[in-house]
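Input/output pair, single chain:
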Amino acid sequence: MSSATTIGGVIDLINAAASGTVTASIDSAGNSLRVVSKNSSTIAVVNNVGSDNTAEELGIGGGKNVLNTLIKLKQALNQNDSIGILATLANLDSGMETVNESMVFYGGITRRLTSTEAGHHEKIVNQNEQILNIEGADMVEAAAEFASMEAALQASLSVTARIIQPSLLDFLR
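Output:
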């Protein structure tokens, strides 16, 4: 597949490598590849080879598309195609690994979002309490407390003025 530079080249390579057992083409919608068995009693199942994931990237197999793999499995079961059944089961295993990896990835994201949401909720509650303390203050109580504090300030200033009485000698120094 590495020698193909166009989708037409990929189709030609698949058709040539399959020795007449399958036909590769572009589907009727024109947006993906389709590989069909020429034998009506079997189905065409495309698997990745080794660590290669070309079939997955081309959307024609490899297990990433679990729904497509399930459709192929149904077809293989209907046609009693034991080789097709085994091949689709291998793709299902690959698909399940992909699903599990995605669940772990998105589970971590969900946990972080939940933690962030809880932190924001706590901050909102704290800010609402602060606003309530400011806006919900009893005006009579606040005025009385202010008058009391003002009287205490005046008294302390008066005492300080009596204790520190500057004399004429203080000004001359």
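The chain has two domains: 7-96, 105-160. The helical segments are 7-17, 54-58, 66-78, 82-135, 139-163, 168-172.
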